[in-house]
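In the previous chapter we treated chains in isolation. Here, by contrast, the input contains three separate entities that must be folded as one system, with a combined length of 922 residues.
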Amino acid sequence: MSATSYTIVNLPDQRTATLPKRSYLNNEDGLLSWLFTGDHKRIAILYLISITFFFFIGGAFAGLIRLELLTPQPDLVASDTYNKFFSMHGIIMIFLFLVPSVPATLGNFLIPIMIGAKDLAFPKVNLLSWYLYWIGGLFTLAALVLGGVDTGWTFTTPLSTHYLNTHVVTAATGVFIIGFSSIFTGLNFIVTIHRMRAPGMTWFRMPLFCWSNYAASVLMVLGTPVLAITLVLVALERLVGIGVFDPTKGGDPLLFQHLFWFYSHPAVYIMILPGMGVISEVISTFSRKRVFGYTAVAFSSVAIALFGFFVWAHHMFIMGVSNYSALVFSLLTMLVAVPSAIKIFNWAFTLQKGSITFETPMLYAFGFLGLFTIGGMTGVFLGALGMDIHLTETYFIVAHFHFVMVGGMLMAFLAGIHFWWPKMTGRMYPESLSKLAAVTTFIGFNLTFLPQFILGYLGMPRRYHAYPPEFQVLNVLSTAGATVLGVGYMLPLLYLAWSLKYGAIAGNNPWQATGLEWQIQSPPLTENFIETPIVDHEAYDYEWLAHKTAQEVTTVG
Amino acid sequence: MDNAIVATHPHTHETAIAAEHEHVVLPQHRHHFETQEQQREAATFGMWLFLLTEIMFFGGLFFAYLLYRNWYHDAFVVSSNQLSIPLGAANTAILITSGFFMALGVWAAEVKKQGLLVLFLVLTTVFGVAFLGIKAVEYHEKWEKHHIPGASFDVSQFTNPQAYGLHEKPLAPDMAQKTQIFFFLYFAMTGMHAFHMVLGIGLLFWLTWRARRGEFSAGYVAPIENFGLYWHFVDIVWLFLFPLLYLINRHPGS
Amino acid sequence: MSEFHDPSNVINPEHADHHIITPVTYAIVFGTLLVFTGITVGAAYVDLGILNPIVALAIASFKAVVVILFFMHVKYQSHLIKLTVAAGFFTFLVLITMTMSDYISRAWGLW
């Protein structure tokens, strides 16, 4: 049992503990055994390394953007170059980091284990997904190296089709291919969750992490293909001049936006839903309490996915959609906020009367709760037509989506990485350093993005590298915050890598959590379970866990 | 003890119903599935999800078509009349026949008749190739008439149809320009469709080769079944493309 | 291969029928599809006014439904498969109708 009362961490005796002799990590040796693996856990690790690589490239662009914005004058780089900075930042962060972040790493690793299966339904398709990710990533890097693309991540026509001679087609091809990586991951999850649950693992006994990834997967499968065809049309417009988005030939540039945002709005739910799944797990574990209103949270995930398809034109309110259409989409946008709010309430009620401890994953989860709420509520402001006309295309939007995506999703991702790190690697990371990183990230984030709400409200446009001098103070604060944030993100890279060799041995269940993944060894065997589990308890059943722990004799090594 | 899940109740389930499914063990059984049936259903479900992505993929093109056909109806009517109904209808019949043979192929695999399976796969391929052949003829005709969108697109047949012996109303120059949008959509949609057919024919060659080796006549029907789903989906896309592109307005006097 | 019997029947909840559709059924479907192809061509030559595109789409939809139910076996598949097919067409319809709701409520064809 834990030595002190303010942490639930329960590690085996470090003098005698060792990693298990056989695990998915040492099952087979050699680079090829990794590059041709079908094991969902190895593919998850491959993804983790890949997205970390792209995250820091995208982060470097963020640094360059904030560096330029230190001064009101456009003095660091030329306008076109600045446009390339924010375009590459957006494309890399969204398609190469956020979309695959939780599903392709944590989802891949955990979903089969959480439902009691030996692997995902289609392991080869899973590997193909990873290769498609890299092929798309290489196209994106090629666009970068060849000179960059400056359309913004949104590829808006007619700018992208008629007014730019940068590497739009290369970048679009990259995104197209990455889209298929995402589709195949989602497809795999849907089939697995429907058809490969262990006996007794009914839908309503699954961890909420599975529900959230399931909802996100439905969005991936149904939404991403529309992005694909849209990018094909952009490429054809550029290469052949077909006229589909060209007013002089009778086309409509707004058609592009309808088709683009039909995916890109559900995309934001693809990004956040898996993070919400992580938060459910973390908050439950570190409150020692089942998630309040399991059914409500599960159905909210599905509701977010469903309603997420009905609101896309709220990105187009000022672009020329009709007033009636704008009214309808605005109303629907208000509705889509409701299930997200339901989740926040449920998490809050999970905390109430729980035994709360503040390990690193929980710190990130608390950060998520506050920052996602702010981000989400500012989204509701933007859904109101009158507000949006004033605030759209300003830094208010930038702040809004960074609050939900970075303050929300990235924090959830880090919460998940820290929570399941001991399971994936068998090692614990240094807790004090990780807490420092979490707090640093939180402070840095707020310093970076809170000023941007004010800047947006005051009228500073987005995607501009020059601004009126009266906005400089807020911009300097924002850049200072970005520096702190950068440090906060570098730290986990360093200490997590360190922990691989020097971290404490974690044992099966260092957090004393419920869930099938915590009942098996850390790191898991390739086949996950020695025999198929039979599930007879509900999710987050801490009584069952206490009963089982009392029955077991803990073995060493 | 660490690695096993301990069931906290004894196995009291009703094993009297023990052998309701014979546990067929095929060589193609994958270890992460408990039963062959689970594997087969998972594969079918997976293929349907993939087809959903195809529905949404073509959906973008169908919407563009819907919009521009309504905006530029006159141009679309005149352009559509340039397409050959005999060729289009023949192609529709050919593709339906190809689908018919594919369905028969699935049946042959299910009843384990290898010879028939191979025959039906070959017939499916033959009719698929015939479809593409007629498409090639149609595309070539468009090339000759300068109806391929781009720099060499020529609207003179639409502004001055009498000179070409066509019984159409002449279009005003700006509406005549919109015929290019019709032809763009024609090539994009039938081209995307044809691309899917080419991929399908490639897969058919592979499947036919495997079928000849007997891989699908011993109970393992999933690849044939699921390829059939793909092939029928491609057929359905054409079933919509044909009336939308070829049959906009063929009645005289309107 | 696991000998495990699954009393709560989670692995295969719906016992999907391995119903084998006969060639006779396929032949009837085949004939129907050809007949309706002929009908749709014929209908294009008759002036039905606004109904022309509706009839064309209705016939095409009927043919598609027949292909889905029989050639693609969906009539005999599990509820999950049927729901999946429905979900696909539902999302397609959302794309079409909601996008159209914008265009239809402004400057129609005055581009």
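Residues 3 and 10 of chain A are 8 Å apart (CA to CA). The mean pLDDT of chain A is 94. Compare these points with the single-chain example from earlier in the chapter.
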